[in-house]
Amino acid sequence: MNTKYRKTIVAGNWKMNLLPSDVKNYSAALMKLYGKNHFCEAVVCVPALMAIPMLRALRGSKIAVGVQDVSAEDSGAYTGEISAAMLADAGVKYVIVGHSERRRMHGETNAMIAKKLRQVLAAGMTPILCVGETLEERDGELAEDVVRLQLRSALYGLTGLDMRHVVIAYEPVWAIGTGRTATPAEAQQMCEGIRAAVRKLFGARVARAVTIQYGGSMNPANAAQLLSQPDVDGGLIGGASLDPEKFYQILEAAKE
């Protein structure tokens, strides 16, 4: 991490886990642990149904609330969708965009992800843009090409000012929910490559300031090593974020 130039952000992604009735106890436990220590920006990304209860439960704390997806459309006849404007009006600060599970299970294309990212920015929220390669792509030595294409597609046409409000999460698909984690060296290599790609698109000053997270089975045991890498500025945490104590341990690792 380089806290001189960029913000450290650790975001939990609950995915489709826990219940609205769990929000109160979870938030109380996390606030008690996190207290006023604020070593980094802490975010809890919940299913949209739980966003308002979580916002209420975390009121008065420094912990931000995010959600896991957003519609690519402004408004209209899109049954079941939730717009960026709705989320922003509720008080949501962060939105995960382009998670590999959305790409793989729901057929989200690079073009759709780019459209969603712009919706989030236009509503005044911060998108967490997920990029990453499959095991086959890594074994085929295509990882960097795949990630660069995902970045260019999502960020094309944005300005340097826009990029001040974009977080990038490198999440190797082969490490998500598998217990297999990229080594600190592998995570650093790809995050450094992502920063280089941002530099080519927007210049050195923007690249130096952009927060790049690592996502993919980060847990209390490996967080400190991963977060010690110079281009890893935080984490996008899956399973470990479901337990407030484990999530706090990762947050605490960000201060070391």
Structural account:
With 256 residues, this protein is an alpha/beta fold. Helices cover 42% and strands 15% of the residues. The chain contains twelve helices and eight strands. The protein has helices at 23-34, 51-57, 84-90, 100-106, 110-122, 135-139, 143-155, 160-163, 184-202, 204-209, 223-227, 244-253, and strands spanning 9-13, 41-46, 64-67, 94-97, 126-131, 167-170, 211-215, 234-237. It has an eight-stranded parallel barrel with strand order 1-2-3-4-5-6-7-8, surrounded by five helices. Strand 1, helix 1 and strand 2 (41-46) form a beta-alpha-beta unit. Helix 1 runs parallel beside helix 12 (244-253) and helix 5 packs across helix 7. The protein is globular and about 45 Å long. The termini are close together. The mean pLDDT is 95.
